[in-house]
Amino acid sequence: MALHKSMKVAFVWVGIAFVALISATAITIRYASEGYTGPIEKEYYEKGLNYEKAILEQKNMIAAGYSFDGDLFSKEPKLERGKNRTIIRFSKSGAAITGAKLEIQLERSATDLWNRTIQLKEDSKRPGEYSGILEFSETGRWILTVKGENSGKTLRRTFEVEIR
């Protein structure tokens, strides 16, 4: 007994849909395998284990009077695509901290293609002021993490900025 013409057409369309589904799955797996970058943050497991300790350290740093100040910390920092010079003042209870290590991590969500860490340098004429060049290669939302290390303690501040 032969199949009706409409049944043959239906089987052909089901076969085409099945081949398209298998092809799309294979292409998706290939792209996912090529673009895998691994964990973005190093030592993420150890940081997770010490999460409570890290929060307590930040609270203690703030309670001790450690703070950052500068244009980046204004309500809407004026940052544009390309190079932007920034100055950050690192202080404890209003007194400038000299000889500290400051860095800024630039991150884009969903990819680590443009992530960078910029080391800030202390201005020899203005103690406690650290400067550097932030370069944004794309417009949109970026995540900035400022880290200041002094006497083995680290103050972190993370926030989002919109680059125009």
Task: Please give a handful of descriptors for the protein shown.
eight-stranded antiparallel β-sheet; alpha+beta; Nitrogen fixation protein FixH; Immunoglobulin-like; FixH
What do these coordinates show?
- There is one protein chain.
- With 164 residues, the chain is α+β, with helices and mostly antiparallel strands.
- The chain has a domain at 67-163: Sandwich (Immunoglobulin-like).
- Helix content is 30%, strand content 41%.
- It contains 3 helices and 8 strands.
- This is Nitrogen fixation protein FixH.
- InterPro entries: FixH.
- It comes from Leptospira gomenensis.
- Please describe the biggest sheet, giving its number of strands, its sense, and whether it closes into a barrel: 8 strands, antiparallel
Structural class by secondary-structure content: alpha+beta
Radius of gyration: 26 Å
Topology-level CATH name of the domain at 67-163: Immunoglobulin-like
Query: Element order, helices and strands?
Result: HHHEEEEEEEE
Secondary structure tally: strands? 8
Helix share of residues?
25-40%
Principal-axes geometry comes out as elongated
Q: Count of helices?
A: 3
- Global mean pLDDT: 89
Q: Which segments are poorly predicted (pLDDT under 50) over 5 or more consecutive residues?
A: none
CATH architecture of the domain at 67-163: Sandwich
Please give the alpha-carbon distance between the first and last residues.
69 Å
* Beta-strand fraction estimate: 35-45%
What is the CATH superfamily classification of the domain at 67-163?
A: Immunoglobulins
CATH class of the domain at 67-163: Mainly Beta
